[in-house]
Amino acid sequence: MTASEMLAAVLITAAPAPEAGGGSTNFLLPNATLFVELLLFAVVFFVFARWIVPPLAKAMREREEMVRKQVEDREQAARKLKQAEQRFEESLAEARAEAAKIRDEARADAQQVRDDLRRDADQEVERIRQQGERQLTEQRGQAVAQLRGEIEGLSGQLAGRILGEPVGTSGKVG
Hints:
It contains two helices and no strands. The chain is mostly helical. The chain has one domain.
């Protein structure tokens, strides 16, 4: 006999007979209907407990595990992001410091080059000035010597004209 046949047999035996005069029944006293309902409840409970609840519970556990893993992954990603931002800020500060150092070195080098060029230019100007002074001194000496020679010649001619006799370069009358 199968479970459905048993259930049908119980239902048939539990049903009140129509010829029973419809006497009064005490609702507090259990009759066959109560036992059939208890049996049906146990079968439904067994079916739910055996085939419906375990897959649902498993799916819920898997979902909870997935959510927990996502939360952990998000927290780990947030930590990594914060660390990356911190490393980025440190690198940026280092780069700025290095740039400032390079800029200061470049300024110092540029100032050194300016000073060297200025010193070289001043030395060149002084050399050219001294060379110009020497040339002027030489030219002045040459001009003075030339003018003395010309003045000596002219004064001798002038003295010769005044005296009427030719005068030599030594200033003696001839």
